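Table S4 entry, 1-deoxy-D-xylulose 5-phosphate reductoisomerase.
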Amino acid sequence: MKQRLTILGSTGSIGTSTLDVVARHPDSYEVFALSAATQVELMLAQCAQFQPRFAVMASAAHARELADKLQANGLATEVLQAPDALEQIAAHEDVDAVMAAIVGAAGLGPCLAAARAGKRLLLANKEALVVGGALFMDTVKRHGATLLPIDSEHSAIFQCLPEDRTTWAQRVDSILLTASGGPFRARDPASLSQITPEQACAHPNFSMGRKISVDSATMMNKALEVIEARWLFDLAPERIKVVIHPQQIVHSMVQFNDASILAQLGTPDMRVPIACGLAWPERIESGAARLDFSQLAALTFEDADARRFPGLHLSWQALRAAEGTTTVLNAANEMAVDAFLHRRLSFDRIHAVNLETLEKMQLPQAPGSLEDLLAVDARARDCARAAVQRWALA
Ligand SMILES: NC(=O)C1=CN([C@@H]2O[C@H](COP(=O)(O)OP(=O)(O)OC[C@H]3O[C@@H](n4cnc5c(N)ncnc54)[C@H](OP(=O)(O)O)[C@@H]3O)[C@@H](O)[C@H]2O)C=CC1
Ligand SMILES: CC(=O)[C@@H](O)[C@H](O)COP(=O)(O)O
Ligand SMILES: [Mn+2]
């Protein structure tokens, strides 16, 4: 029986890598539904190749445009419109697994819908878990969903941890998330105000979407990954460490209480964690190049300089603060990065917007529901929008 897949965000970097792996295994996987925001032409091409039952677009206009093109090409895929349709294709009774590859908090609703339906949830969309936190993990557990990390560091940790989750806490001292340090790791911090979106999106090892690429450059990606790891592996923040490893051959490590360290290595190619998530506990061909140790110059490791990467430490700070603070941090960062990408804010002020939003946002009570979380997210975005305007003019 083939695994029937919904791919949320199929036209993005993770989405297209997922379809690359799926196309290598036509006897094991079939595409049930795809989703995108605005890329109609790419979605049309994906529908022609994989013939999904449904395709979802973010707006009525893009949905109509896709429907017309599908009809003109004699393709039977039915077009639906987000946001309701995203939850529909994530939870559909004819779906076995959902690849969560939408960028940002926008992916939280469909992720929770997949979890409530007890699906195999392949999570790349780290912001959904950063915002959802305890509610996300409780929903997975309560409905018997299977949550598999796709983020390369968290996939590495998952591959190194013992299968028996009940004994992790006693055997694991800490986990070490590796980080590239981004494209400006060795650059003079005084010159960061001049950085352009194109420079910030030039990641040293991976070709990724624009938002995560900027996050890697500020190391806010690693801050989000610390929060993601806290929830995925139920670890206290102080047991989650970060080490800069520019080559990104070691994708992260687990430090056990007998001083052993287990690590997962490989070429920096997202098709490896994607294949791992699709096939787990089996393994399938990912298409990634094999690591040739004779060609490896050196594997180096260094501390993350708090001066150069002030955003990284906001993760542990937010995890120790009032519940909902990580939702505020994520919302502020999404707004600041979007302003930077649209040239309304300089690169070196992304952190200032995040800091100011955290300082100004009051959290009277813990957000206990999705509605509460979305309300905190919306208020934080309003607060961050004002901070962007202030810092853009300063
Ligand atoms: N890229 C990578 O290597 C890695 C990515 N991740 C995580 O995976 C997620 C996806 O990243 P990536 O693939 O790089 O992102 P991209 O920006 O490349 O793709 C995002 C996808 O989501 C769609 N989308 C964007 N906004 C919305 C919205 N508001 N509602 C519905 N769909 C939307 C896009 O549609 P459209 O194409 O039409 O704009 C696209 O299909 C992120 O959370 C990222 O942090 C984690 C590890 C590595
Ligand atoms: C491929 C992946 O998982 C990204 O999160 C990438 O690792 C970015 O890494 P840095 O944030 O360490 O540059
Ligand atoms: Mn990562």
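Residues 151-269+290-316 form one domain.
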